[in-house]
TrEMBL record:
Residues given in the record as substrate binding sites: S9, H65, G141, F142, G143, G144, D174, G175, G176, G196, S197
Record protein name field: Ribulose-phosphate 3-epimerase
Pathway this chain belongs to: Carbohydrate degradation
Cofactor binding annotation: Binds 1 divalent metal cation per subunit.
UniProt KW keywords: Carbohydrate metabolism, Cobalt, Isomerase, Manganese, Metal-binding, Zinc
Organism: Cryobacterium luteum
Classification via Gene3D superfamilies: Aldolase class I
Cofactor(s), names only, from the UniProt record: a divalent metal cation; Mn(2+); Fe(2+); Zn(2+)
EC numbers: 5.1.3.1
Residues binding a divalent metal cation, per UniProt: H32, D34, H65, D174
GO terms classed as biological process: pentose catabolic process; pentose-phosphate shunt
Signal peptide annotation: none
Reactions listed under catalytic activity: D-ribulose 5-phosphate = D-xylulose 5-phosphate
PROSITE patterns according to UniProt: RIBUL_P_3_EPIMER_1, RIBUL_P_3_EPIMER_2
Gene designation per UniProt: rpe
Length: 218
């Protein structure tokens, strides 16, 4: 089955010990790296220089989530830094098709992210241009928020469109994924699961990853 991936978010990790924090999730499928600019979202995290260093030391591929304005200018530089995937928000790009093509040309998978209030339908014609659709299940900006169940129909519609068009596009969910919510998201059709506090908020992040896999029936 398509359902595969637990991508812990280092947003909930200890930012002064990032290399050690990566080593604690070596059983993950990828590490989710939240880049915020205090403009697209009301929070500020890390930028390109830190992400370039993370790429050098990470035991797992990097799945970068850009919550930044001016993404048409920045995203290609993250692809050049060796990211497995670069996900940008449709609300922040003036030319999402051009940008997705640029990312793929630079060897990264292209991800398109939607805030909770952004409908998926206008972007279904773009599925052949991307490798991943990120359906936010909280308002982007902070970890530890509650999963928005009202996003489940959107996940279902995205899954139907992906399956119907036969493209190989992953459906990622991000925000509020826990041992309790992961199965609902999986049953709706998501197959890549970001989890911050549900991994790094636990005494053993590695065990938490396995619990999520078990509860999501991955
Ligand atoms: C929120 C970020 C998420 C965040 C998720 O804007 O995009 O990746 O780390 O954190 P949890 O899993 O705690 O909701
Ligand atoms: Zn994220």
């Amino acid at each position: 089955h398509l359902q595969c991936c637990i991508n812990p978010s280092i947003l909930s990790a200890d930012f002064v010990n990032l290399e050690a924090e990566l080593a604690r999730i070596s059983n993950a499928d990828a590490v989710h790296v939240d880049v915020m600019d205090n403009h697209f979202v009301p929070n500020l995290t890390i930028g390109l220089p830190v992400v370039q260093r993370l790429q050098k030391v990470s035991p797992v591929p990097l799945d970068v989530h850009l919550m930044i304005s001016d993404v048409d200018r920045w995203a290609p530089q993250f692809a050049d830094a060796g990211m497995s995937s670069v996900t940008f928000h449709v609300e922040a790009s003036n030319a999402p098709v051009k940008l997705a093509r640029e990312l793929r040309a630079r060897g990264a998978k292209a991800g398109l992210a939607l805030r909770p209030a952004t409908p998926v339908e206008p972007y279904l014609d773009l599925l052949s241009e991307i490798d991943m659709l990120l359906i936010m299940t909280v308002e982007p900006g902070f970890g530890g928020q509650e999963f928005l169940d009202i996003m489940l129909p959107k996940i279902r519609r995205a899954r139907a469109a992906v399956d119907g068009s036969g493209v190989n596009v992953a459906i990622q969910v991000d925000g509020g994924i826990t041992e309790d919510t992961i199965l609902r998201a999986a049953e709706a059709g998501a197959n890549v699961f970001v989890a911050g506090s549900a991994v790094y908020g636990k005494p053993s992040p590695a065990d938490a990853i396995e619990s999520l896999r078990a509860n999501g029936q991955l």
